[in-house]
Amino acid sequence: MTRTPLSRRDALRLATMGGVVALAGCSATPQRATTQQSAPVARRAWGAFIPDVLARDGSTSNPIERLATLAGSTPHYLHRFVSFGDSLPTAELDAIGAAGAQPLLTLEPWKPGAGTVQPLFSLARIASGVFDGELRKWASGLSAWGKPVLLRFAQEMNGTWYPWSIGVSGNTADQYREAWKRMHTVFTDAGAGNVRFVWAPNVVTDGTSDFTAAFPGHDLVDYLALDGYNWAGGSGHRWQWPEELFSASLATLARIDSDRPLLITETASAEGDMPSLKADWIRRLFGIVEATDRLEGALWFQMDKERDWRFNSTPQSLDAFRRSVAALSG
To answer: Does the predicted TM-score (pTM) go above 0.70?
Structure first.
């Protein structure tokens, strides 16, 4: 996912002043791709990132309850972002658990808002142990919290927009694997048995590269995941259906590892030329979730940021989302 100068953290700060989130476009309808299916998974689920999970400024309105009401279904996963230097968001984790959802916590090794080139956070420095103290802080904090949590570390490494991206500041795929191994070792040594590790490259598309060389290894990963967005048109982007975005990269994940479960940890679509296009995009995305072996679910990026990504950006897309997530549990 190509980033704009506004960091995700900056956008989150702005969003929490307003509330929960809705779009932009292009079109062109290619042939539908087919996704091969073998043995079904035990559960298909959905989740989301929303700007906040806590009621703020004395409000009694619960953002998680608003999301569930909007979607007509309770999310199984809720996604939060944290960075080196942050404190454990215990209140947010508690709120997610109280809502019956599982937290997906993305731990980003950087200083948010400081740009892509941050040599301080190079993969070589992480792998050499410079940040072991920071990693121990997160490991001990999550271990003490005690409930199941998915931890996604240094995501989208095959892009070009993060300090840990391969090719930025001299980072290599070998260094990425070593940095991941260092992180995993610190968590293991801290006894964080409630943590499951999620490795999440970006789908291979314009502006990204193959991610296979960065795979840390079967014993160091619990979930294999992907991020992928349909930016529609403008700013060098084009409309991409879910099959075009995900099918080839999901097949690559299946070849990399033969039995770990799969997730889509970030996804959303901008609007097309007609309201029906985003609605169809949503239906086709969840068709992939239902049809792909080992793919346990998808997490929607429910925010108006570079685009209006929200699933409720139009009545048509809201209806498509509600029907799709209802079918997952039905």
So the answer is: yes
